[in-house]
Design goal:
Layout (H helix, E strand, L loop, with lengths): L17 H29 L6 E4 L6 E3 L5 E4 L7 H13 L8 H10 L3 H8 L6
Parallel strand pairs: 1-3
Antiparallel strand pairs: 2-3
Length: 129
């Protein structure tokens, strides 16, 4: 019997022009200097414990949280106001308790980040580079 295996096409990394590449490296430097300390501060303030933090250059999300308690933050956060940075970090910290977007998740997020739905709308005004 002959089996046909279909492979998913590999995603090609986006090629950046020199100016954009330099901007990304500067954002990476700023993010590594600022985001770990701020995430730790917010986690302590609200009683969350996470495993590791990674700073990434994603093209599709501002942050993510794994079931192992690892948090990823996008270096593009350095391009948005601190209020929106905090919203993204608190959103990911709340995923440590609820790995979904259930009503319980949103209630927890609202308790630590009042007005989070408006902040979510405001974040959509910013584009990822």
């Amino acid at each position: 019997m002959l089996w046909i295996v279909r492979r998913r096409p590999r995603r090609r990394k986006k090629t950046l022009d020199a100016a954009t590449a330099a901007l990304v490296e500067e954002l990476r430097r700023q993010a590594k200097a600022y985001l770990p300390g701020r995430l730790a501060e917010l986690a302590t303030l609200h009683g969350f414990q996470y495993n590791t933090l990674r700073i990434k250059h994603n093209s599709s999300n501002w942050g993510s949280c794994s079931s192992k308690g690892n948090i990823n933050l996008n270096l593009n956060l350095m391009r948005v106001p601190q209020e929106l940075q905090d919203y993204v970090m608190l959103h990911e910290l709340c995923h440590l308790k609820y790995l979904n977007h259930s009503p319980q998740f949103h209630a927890l997020l609202e308790s630590v980040c009042p007005g989070h739905r408006e902040k979510q709308r405001r974040l959509k005004e910013f584009k990822l580079i």
